[in-house]
Design goal:
By secondary structure, this protein is mainly beta. The chain has four helices and 28 strands.
């Protein structure tokens, strides 16, 4: 009986303990699976983030980089304390990640990166850093105003407070989109002005949105943008008026139909009016015009010019004229380069041609001058980039 009990115990031990054979299980005493791989081993992937954790005064452009060795990046997120994320892209080979935009100045960022090794094991790394506080900054003064309704010729025009030496970086940080969609391109006039427009005049009813993501952009060495804002405007009805300086008339076309033909007086033979496409940029019911401010010395100083609408920076206006006789309009060119319409002193009469045109025009409307014995207006003299071909504009 004792012999039988001992034998039974040995059988139980053999069945449960595996004896001298490992065929009954899938693990060996060393903790390896059947393929020889060690379970619970650390990932071989190594994530490196630059700048280092806790760094401050970090450059807003070119300093942020994430790489992986012995593995591939699978996730990289970068965001500031407000949760705003920085867009970026993982390289096709998974070895690196680069931001697709610059960072903002004086901002704390958190970086979370995950890489995976050849066996699918993940390794993660988290860091924080703070960008530099710019000592010198610039902003862009823009037109048109947020929420405004403007004419079909209105460009987006941005004038920077400092001369820009890295225009590509600045332009990349500005987006202009239209609904309905149409390609919109930027063009630099000098180093401090950037305008955007489509190939042809905007379609009536278009909504345009502009995003200025300039905060942190190094526009020139040591000088950083500090704007991060959006604005939008709407294109109203289409109105294009054509002045024929020879015929001394102005035809007003709205939404493709002529609605008015107004007799005018243009520039006199010695002070002719520019030819070309011009955009109304300002409106004044009454304003002062002094010849000394535009190179005409003391030839005139009229303190109450009615219904004035600016067409150029150099002083070209379409405006009311109460000092010339009624018979002048449509028969003689007598101005100092402006386009004059019959009016009354004080701008009180709503029935004059000038009052009608003023009340039926908005900022951004187009006025085209032709058949004047003068040159074409320079595209940067006012909001008049339409005088450049599309190939010139996009070059």
């Amino acid at each position: 009986m004792l012999s039988a009990l001992v034998m039974g115990a040995m059988l139980v031990l053999t069945a449960c303990g595996g004896g001298g054979s490992a065929k009954g299980g899938d693990k060996d005493p060393g903790g390896k699976d059947g393929s020889g791989k060690v379970e619970n081993a650390a990932s071989q992937a190594v994530v490196t983030i630059s700048p280092k954790d806790g760094a401050d005064a970090v450059a807003t452009m070119g300093a942020l980089k994430v790489t992986a060795a012995k593995g591939k990046l699978t996730t990289v997120t970068v965001q500031d304390d407000k949760g705003t994320k920085i867009e970026g892209k993982i390289a096709a080979d998974g070895a690196s990640w680069q931001p697709l935009q610059h960072l903002a100045g004086a901002t704390k960022y958190k970086v979370h990166a995950v890489a995976e090794d050849a066996d699918g094991r993940e390794s993660a790394k988290d860091t924080t850093f703070t960008t530099l506080v710019p000592k010198n900054t610039f902003i862009g003064h823009y037109t048109p105003e947020d929420g405004s309704t403007v004419g079909v010729g209105m460009p987006v025009s941005i004038n920077f407070t400092r001369g820009i030496t890295d225009p590509a970086a600045v332009e990349k940080a500005i987006t202009v989109t239209a609904e309905p969609s149409v390609p919109v391109e930027g063009h630099w006039f000098g180093n401090d002005r950037l305008d955007f427009r489509p190939e042809k005049y905007w379609a009536a009813g278009t909504k345009v949105t502009v995003k200025l993501n300039l905060d942190g952009v190094e526009g020139r060495p040591g000088v950083y943008g500090k704007q991060a804002k959006s604005f939008s405007f709407t294109i109203g009805r289409s109105q294009v008026s054509t002045v024929d300086a020879s015929a001394k008339t102005m035809k007003v076309v709205r939404d493709g139909k002529e609605i008015k033909n107004i007799p005018i007086t243009a520039g006199a033979p010695s002070t002719t009016t520019y030819n070309g496409q011009m955009v109304i940029s300002e409106k004044y019911k009454v304003t002062r015009m002094n010849g000394a401010t535009v190179g005409f010395g003391g030839e005139y100083d009229i303190k109450d010019v009615p219904h004035a609408m600016r067409l150029s920076t150099s002083g070209t206006f379409v405006h009311g004229n109460y000092w010339a006789s009624a018979g002048t309009f449509g028969s003689a060119n007598v101005s100092h380069g402006c386009i004059g319409l019959r009016d009354v002193r004080g701008a009180y009469d709503k029935n004059t041609p000038s009052a009608w045109f003023y009340n039926n025009s908005i900022i951004g409307d187009v006025v085209i001058v032709k058949n004047s014995k003068d040159k074409q207006i320079a595209p940067d003299n006012g909001l008049n980039g339409w005088n450049m071909s599309w190939s010139e504009w996009t070059a």
